[in-house]
């Protein structure tokens, strides 16, 4: 049987929990202090004594007994003192008092002495025995109280990295998106990665079910919305280059290309609230540069002669007539069948972006510092100003918990955990452990 000495305890300022007269004070999770009082009534006979031994148990076979308290009747105490004087009785291992007097316990138990005290619900009872002149008789145990260790909340709060911007993330899989440093005015040169929207022959009506227009436009709109909703990126230019095929009078085709540009701009603006100043609309007219690249990349029998006409005839209408007459019209029929169908489009759409300073990360990290200093109310006020940014949700959960708003805390932490935040998952695990321990203390 392990007996602990009664010790005075100097404890860090932790609010004690008490139940049924039992005071429990945890010292930095390395020691626990128990404070309670035992009293046996004055009804003990003058010749008798009652031995009360405080006993800690957890229901799983672990037991720890403290020093007993002995309550003696008047004659019993006198007999005992006389017997000790003559060496006929052992020296008391606990505290002895007269019946009816209290025995106050103040005991510190280190975690390495009884680690199971930190694991689940623990009962504190007093084993009792009555002793007369000739016999010892068991008595019913007295329940003093119970307790359970409530682990401290040690929030997991990693600093938030400065965001390089939603645009930078999107750019990896969307070549249509380019940093503003890559911007060049349209000069007919290829725009690598730009998206094409197609129109039927000689039309400027935007048909979503024509070719892959719906997917292309959805992509443009979703990328623009994502960047505009991000606190660290900004849309700088939405570039739309309108084109028409070389088939038909140049004046008509230029007007058609202009109408196509306007239709596309109106469509995007109708889906995303964007000012006119963000748009660069370019009437690219007839798509001669695109036609030349398509011919040069092929191996048709008219390749070199077609390229010579395009490169040496400055007048677009005369250029078209020369091509239509080449080899009795066979070259033009090949162009219509193999190339011009893909030239009947609005041209190119491209988005340029730039970064903005990540002021949100600075707010979250400052609030995190305040939480570490115990200034939770101040941190919460700061975090609520950036609550739209999902990076703030774990810190918001911690701030709410520390200010006693537990239901709100769990809501924020779950939102963060659902987004894959490992710190939020750890904080939820701690909360659940604390909640269960608090239930055991009831």
Pick out its properties.
six-stranded mixed beta sheet, rod-shaped, 442 residues, alpha+beta, five-stranded mixed beta sheet, single chain
The span between the termini is 29 Å
The Rg value, from CA coordinates, equals 43 Å
Overall 3D form: rod-shaped
Strand fraction band?
A: 15-25%
Poorly predicted segments: 1-20
In terms of topology, how is this protein built?
Blueprint: E1 17-19, E2 22-27, E3 31-39, E4 49-57, E5 63-65, E6 69-72, H1 74-85, E7 95-98, E8 102-110, E9 121-131, E10 136-148, H2 166-171, E11 177-179, E12 195-198, H3 213-229, E13 233-244, H4 250-271, E14 279-286, H5 288-297, H6 303-312, H7 316-325, H8 330-338, H9 340-343, E15 345-355, H10 359-372, H11 376-384, H12 393-402, H13 406-418, H14 422-440
Parallel strand pairs: 6-7, 11-15, 13-14
Antiparallel strand pairs: 1-2, 2-3, 3-8, 4-5, 4-6, 4-9, 9-10, 12-15, 13-15
Describe, in plain words, how this protein is organized in 3D:
The relative contact order is 0.11. With 442 residues, the chain is an alpha+beta fold. It contains 14 helices and 15 strands. Strands 4, 5, 6, 7, 9 and 10 form a 6-stranded mixed sheet that branches. Strands 11, 12, 13, 14 and 15 form a 5-stranded mixed sheet that branches. A 4-stranded antiparallel sheet has the order 1-2-3-8, with no helix packed on it. Strand 1 and strand 2 form a beta hairpin. Helix content is 37%, strand content 25%. The N terminus is likely disordered.
């Amino acid at each position: 049987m392990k007996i602990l000495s009664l010790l005075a305890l100097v404890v860090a300022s932790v609010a004690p929990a008490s139940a049924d007269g039992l005071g429990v004070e945890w010292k930095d999770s390395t020691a626990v202090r128990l404070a309670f009082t035992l009293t046996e009534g004055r009804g003990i006979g003058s010749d008798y004594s009652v031995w009360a031994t405080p006993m800690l148990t957890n229901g799983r076979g672990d037991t720890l007994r403290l020093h007993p308290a002995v309550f003696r009747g008047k004659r019993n105490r006198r007999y005992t003192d006389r017997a000790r004087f003559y060496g006929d009785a052992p020296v008391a291992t606990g505290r002895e008092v007269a019946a009816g007097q209290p025995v106050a316990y103040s005991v510190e138990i280190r975690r390495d002495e009884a680690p199971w005290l930190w694991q689940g619900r623990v009962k504190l009872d007093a084993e009792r025995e009555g002793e007369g002149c000739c016999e010892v008789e068991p008595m019913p145990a007295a329940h003093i109280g119970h307790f359970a260790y409530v682990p401290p909340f040690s929030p997991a709060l990693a600093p938030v990295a400065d965001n390089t911007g939603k645009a930078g993330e999107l750019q990896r899989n969307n070549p249509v998106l380019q940093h503003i440093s890559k911007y060049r005015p349209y000069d007919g040169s290829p725009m690598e990665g730009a998206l094409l929207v197609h129109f039927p022959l000689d039309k400027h009506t935007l048909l979503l079910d024509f070719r892959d227009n719906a997917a292309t436009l959805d992509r443009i709109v979703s990328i623009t919305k994502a960047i505009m909703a991000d606190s660290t990126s900004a849309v700088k230019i939405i570039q739309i280059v309108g084109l028409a095929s070389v088939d038909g009078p140049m004046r008509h085709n230029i007007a058609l290309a202009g109408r196509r540009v306007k239709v596309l701009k109106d469509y995007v603006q109708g889906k995303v609230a964007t000012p006119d100043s963000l748009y660069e609309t370019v009437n690219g007219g007839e798509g001669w540069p695109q036609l030349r690249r398509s011919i040069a990349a092929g191996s048709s029998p008219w390749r070199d002669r077609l390229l010579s006409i395009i490169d040496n005839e400055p007048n677009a209408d005369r250029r078209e007539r020369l091509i239509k007459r080449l080899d009795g019209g066979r070259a033009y029929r090949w162009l219509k069948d193999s190339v011009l169908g893909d030239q009947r489009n609005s041209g190119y759409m491209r988005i340029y972006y730039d970064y903005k300073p990540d002021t949100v990360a600075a707010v979250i990290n400052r609030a995190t510092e305040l939480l570490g200093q115990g200034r939770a109310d101040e941190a919460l006020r700061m975090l609520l100003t950036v609550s739209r940014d999902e990076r703030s949700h774990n810190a918001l959960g911690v701030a709410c918990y520390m200010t006693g708003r537990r239901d709100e805390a769990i809501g924020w932490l779950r939102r963060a955990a659902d987004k894959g935040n490992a710190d939020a998952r750890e904080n939820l695990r701690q909360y659940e452990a604390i909640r269960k321990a608090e239930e055991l203390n009831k």
